[in-house]
């Protein structure tokens, strides 16, 4: 059998003709399948645009094609690179120190955690340890934002000590943008325009929201899927973290400047030494995984150094990657989420295949299986929660409802639903060094940090720059709590159903209830409580399912619902526990069957389990920040 | 919309005028551009679709322009697909070899396309209304046979038997008069292969070896099953999902209809020969006249849509003449397209069905986008008065049966497959059978009287109208194998499907109430009801149980057999017979008992709810009995 892979024979050159034909093969087909309306792709090389292509539509209904030079996209978190570049400009000028207490640059206070303040370096490496604020992040079209009032409106809780746990933070980035504004004395939008856009000639780019009138006609629609109606313009409250609007061609200029050590033609946004510092200062948390640099993600591939940033708004999905030693940059932005998270899989596959075609690995290195594979698989198996989460509010429930599970497989490999292949199957990982695993069908790694033989955090190259996974403490582990909650709900449901059925059957066969007085009252009270708990649970389910959708945006406008639900949970769950206690006492005191005594006890335990869960996951709370 | 989007992007036409990336019209079909384009498209498409591997071959001007292998031919052993040496099962593309063989014999004057085929057979295909079947009917899929599912495929090499015994073991019913209704028939193609065997005096696979594969130098292709030993290690493994288990070799008894295994490189030779009017280099498989006859003799059944030629599908695109054939086994899928006037041929095959049937989307969009990039043209268009269009839309609206039908228990599947044509308020129509890439029904706009076009693409849909009524319709994507015929009211899913659902619900509730009543009565110590009422209730419950049980047994059997072709063999005949017997007893008996109960109940003047429920049970049993008769669950045959 011939063994050579067909592409090994002749290595395609990174030429304009080849890249264009290759992209023409990839993009339209992938977009169509994903139901994504339109996309722009730009490849720069050696200081020039090699290829810029628009695919599909900026406006499906009007059949407006995507124009790489004029169609505006929302690069989302790729915006952060502008904030970080601005910070580095001010560092270069000596106006900012990456390691000083950030409070020295603020006119309000970020409280310390365990006596330790946060620094700009923490913000740039996503290790400030803030929990993730959700409310008021995405606001309706035409909302006017004031950065300071957003930042001071609610300071999210600091849940990790600074510098130790990567936990992606839009809030911290917005804070850095505010520092730029304070220190430079220029409003953030003005600063970026004067010191980056103007210098690079990025004429179709802005952080302003709503869009300046001149740019509005060039704006692409955003879509959930291209076959459904367009969505409205998204206003992003954490503006320095994500409010950029730009074209493919303009992003090419920004990429070229970073690839050329800060220079774009005769202009310059950073000195070479500053650019080098920004691109080459990693913070190692879990070796050997990809790390955070000063604002860029490390994303090396096939032995080539790559620095990168992705970006996602609700509808726009983008990715910027710089092969920093090869002088090549790659940017894609799509104007729809597409079906089944297609935008994410597609952009990753696109860059993987791009680098495999034009910057292939020198040779495959079949790393040997580590002998400790099965043992370490068992050690890491379990339930985890993402470091990028909520702690102080009801959204903490997501760690109960959707924990990240690592499974030890029979063959000694591990898998987790968190990292999935293009074909929809979970990636499989085999250990290649102690607590370092490699994707069986790829090159990315998964690794754990181990203290005293216990896994204290782990992550995978896909996300390790800014997110890690932490063990869920036993006392609130879904491993026992979820079955307990489900069993409680089953008991409560059975109790709720038994009430009317028994009443009907008794009426039909002419048998009145044997209970009277307080016994009957307790019987009725506890059954009404069971139904009330189920009602509250259903209401939470409905809220969690719709909050953040277009029907119920996660803004201040939804606060009243949350107040009702949180207070309702308090009244119902506490009331139910009291009722169940009283009922159990009366049942045990009376001459009732053993089954009834057991059931009343089960009911009490169920009500207490629900109350415990509500308290732990903050479903009972007295403020509405999240 | 996406079609147009891809088209726009590929043609480059709507790009920015400032960008010099703009190319008007076609890209030049050269090896470098095509290779990069395929390399961009195929690996992602296969990975995304969970397809293990595939091959793409393009020939131009009598030579191979590009041949590329993607992914793996064997996942466990990590063997790549190699165009020159990896064999794929090409499924129904095999038929083109059978039809080519038939044309060779026509050329030699040994067979006549228009003679009664019984003249070439050693058994009899009965006439329908006095009209026999001809080879031309077989080549154009108009013999009017019912579908044959038995012996579709097996994995047991001892199970393969000669063409003659296969054909004689179950001659399908003739549902339509010959030459009038397109209804794709594997049995018909196998019959033609058998005629080649009989007339040439050589086993069919040997004939093809000697007269087609040999002359073309297709050394890594064969119709023999199992494959000759030297080729076996070269055959790609078949998969449902590339991430799943490898599947066994499919033995296809109707080998002339689907038994071929071939490499992409070998198929290139076959394409070149057909593009060059039968010649391959200095050898020749058909005379030019014969090739022209084969490529250019369409049979029009439904106007305006793609037709059957003598064995090839007509598949013209954008003004370019295209002749084609697709092929599917359970795991392998392929497409062959010849741009006969441009001298260009495209063959693509994959070895997995992929998730959500990704194989079809991958191949379908590949051939579409290839044509749009390198051989663009204009789609047919036109405009019709909106009042007239709305009238025609109302005329065609309704339920339709596909023409590939079963005369046995499998016809129940076709109840669920009935197509619904709906007149939309904007004058367009939608057809449930035709969906776009995102799964929505395509919309069709009338561009000429009774000719509609996909609003987002070039495909047409045509209807044949007689005496002011639509008697059949089809669309380009199906018209060479299936037409749609109006469903008579008595077998229409419009009322039968909701009727069946309601009936099953009534019967299931009747059964479910049984244990609840028993428990409640025991607990409250109530006496059972009086004798006659109790007997009625019990009879009703038993009838419901028998009817639901039998219906469920049919459904389970059909689903199981259709999802595992190895069950489509005589080994299950005893069970099929038993089911038919059970159906007669349970459906007829159940309906009879329920009707009798209803009569007794009404006579005894019980509460209104009891009367109503008993009547509902009887009605439900009758609906299921009706379905069983109309869809051949009551019928005495194990021929399918």
Task: Explain the layout of strands and helices.
The complex is a heterodimer of chains A (626) and B (640).
Chain A: H1 6-9, H2 16-34, E1 38-45, E2 48-59, E3 64-65, H3 80-92, H4 120-124, E4 138-139, H5 147-153, H6 170-184, H7 188-200, E5 235-236, H8 239-242, H9 248-259, E6 263-264, E7 267-268, H10 272-279, E8 297-298, E9 306-312, E10 317-323, E11 328-334, H11 342-358, H12 373-380, E12 382-386, H13 398-401, E13 404-408, E14 414-420, E15 426-433, E16 436-439, E17 445-451, E18 454-460, E19 469-471, H14 478-508, H15 517-546, H16 559-589, H17 594-616
Antiparallel strand pairs in A: 1-2, 1-11, 2-3, 4-5, 6-7, 8-9, 9-10, 10-11, 12-13, 12-19, 13-14, 14-15, 15-16, 16-17, 17-18
Helix pairs in contact in A: 3-6, 3-7, 14-15, 14-17, 15-16, 16-17
Chain B: H1 2-11, H2 31-48, E1 53-60, E2 63-74, E3 79-80, E4 87-89, H3 94-107, H4 135-139, H5 163-169, H6 186-200, H7 204-216, E5 238-239, E6 246-247, H8 255-258, E7 261-263, H9 264-275, E8 279-280, E9 283-284, H10 288-295, E10 313-314, E11 322-328, E12 333-339, E13 344-350, H11 358-374, H12 386-396, E14 398-402, H13 411-416, E15 419-423, E16 429-435, E17 441-448, E18 451-454, E19 460-466, E20 469-475, E21 484-486, H14 493-524, H15 531-563, H16 573-603, H17 608-630
Helix pairs in contact in B: 3-6, 3-7, 14-15, 14-17, 15-16, 15-17, 16-17
Task: Please give a structural write-up.
The complex is a heterodimer of chains A (626) and B (640). With 626 residues, chain A is α+β, with helices and mostly antiparallel strands. Chain A is 39% helix and 16% strand. Chain A has helices at 6-9, 16-34, 80-92, 120-124, 147-153, 170-184, 188-200, 239-242, 248-259, 272-279, 342-358, 373-380, 398-401, 478-508, 517-546, 559-589, 594-616; strands at 38-45, 48-59, 64-65, 138-139, 235-236, 263-264, 267-268, 297-298, 306-312, 317-323, 328-334, 382-386, 404-408, 414-420, 426-433, 436-439, 445-451, 454-460, 469-471. In chain A, the strands form four sheets. In chain A, strands 18-17-16-15-14-13-12-19 form an eight-stranded antiparallel beta sheet, covered by helices on one side. In chain A, strands 3-2-1-11-10-9-8 form a seven-stranded antiparallel beta sheet, with helices on both faces. In chain A, helix 14 (478-508) packs across helix 15 and helix 16 (559-589) runs antiparallel to helix 17. Chain B is of the alpha+beta class and 640 residues long. In chain B, the strands form five sheets. Chain B has an eight-stranded antiparallel beta sheet with strand order 20-19-18-17-16-15-14-21. In chain B, strands 3-2-1-13-12-11-10 form a seven-stranded antiparallel beta sheet, sandwiched between helices. The two termini of chain B are 41 Å apart. In chain B, helix 14 crosses helix 15, helix 15 (531-563) packs antiparallel against helix 16 (573-603) and helix 16 (573-603) runs antiparallel to helix 17 (608-630). Chain B is 40% helix and 16% strand. The chains are: A alpha+beta (626), B alpha+beta (640). The interface between A and B is large, with 61 and 60 residues.
